[in-house]
Write a structure and sequence with these properties.
Length: 300
């Protein structure tokens, strides 16, 4: 784009030709023209000094506009980069949340799979029965063969608890409170005796007979493994040091099993440990008696 030209007039008003602003400024600085010369512009005639000052002001305005334009472009670029950064961070956060949700779903699927293969044992009729699957217990619970107070044992818990605590079997219904049941005494042996029948009563003109189920009872865990270990140690190396505890503990635990207080599933190992302890103790006593008589006879 060519530079704009202006008509230069002498002090007499004679036309000196068309010149650009830079040429007029050069001629003024070289003193080729005087202050009496004028320049014809769109706004009218101006003296050379006024024209040069006007052009400098216009240059300053143009320079300022260029700077403002550059700043606006830089700000627009910054905003663009900031928007791209926010979009990238948002996409990354959403991807992380999606991955976390996928992991949670996979974890829940594994838990559901483990729960579906979980093994349960019941204490019914004074005996430990099982194993049962979750589906088996759901059918038994829905059929009324077991209720929320039935005692259940699992490997992860390691103790007997009420069935109503297993939401995967009883659902939300097991968490709700049930109507209070009449109190009855435990039978002499857990699991023995027959259900008691309450006295009939009338409600709304209908006669109902309520059969009360025998109350469930949590048994003490047996110590058959410990008693058997003590008996074996007494027989192999420690003698009466472990034989006496095996004898005493085994005898006490067998009495509690007979009374229905302790889990009877460890009766075999408990009896074996007790017998080993008894044998070691008796043999030790006989040996000490024999040594005593030999010593007495040798002294005589």
């Amino acid at each position: 784009m060519s530079e704009k030209t202006y008509a230069l007039l002498s002090w007499r008003g004679e036309d000196q030709g068309m010149h650009s602003a830079s040429e007029i400024k050069r001629m003024w600085e070289a003193e080729e023209i005087s202050g009496l010369f004028q320049v014809a512009t769109d706004s009218g005639n101006m003296s050379v000094q006024e024209f040069i000052a006007f052009e400098q002001e216009e240059e300053q305005k143009e320079l300022q506009q260029q700077q403002e334009l550059a700043q606006a472009q830089a700000e627009a670029e910054r905003l663009k980069l900031e928007r791209e950064r926010i979009e990238a961070e948002t996409a990354q956060r959403l991807e992380l949340e999606r991955l976390k949700a996928d992991q949670e779903q996979a974890k829940q699927a594994r838990l559901d799979e483990e729960m579906s293969g979980k093994i349960y044992y019941l204490y019914l009729g004074g005996q430990k029965k099982g194993p049962y699957s979750k589906e088996n217990l759901q059918i038994m619970y829905q059929g009324g063969k077991v209720d929320g107070s039935t005692q259940v044992w699992t490997q992860d818990l390691g103790e007997w608890v009420d069935l109503k605590g297993f939401k995967e079997i009883v659902g939300n219904s097991g968490m709700l409170g049930s109507a209070p049941q009449p109190v009855q005494q435990f039978p002499p042996q857990y699991g023995q005796g027959s259900p008691q029948i309450n006295q009939p009563y009338h409600q709304g003109g209908t006669r109902r007979i309520v059969r009360q189920q025998p109350a469930q009872r949590i048994l003490k865990p047996h110590r058959g493994g410990l008693v058997l270990t003590l008996g074996l140690l007494s027989f192999l190396c420690f003698g009466i040091l472990t034989g006496i505890p095996a004898w005493v503990m085994g005898d006490s635990d067998l009495k509690e099993m007979d009374a229905g207080i302790m889990d009877p599933s460890g009766r075999g190992s408990t009896s074996a440990g007790k017998v080993l302890g008894m044998i070691v103790c008796i043999l030790t006593i006989l040996y000490l008696v024999a040594v005593f008589f030999v010593a007495v006879i040798g002294a005589v």
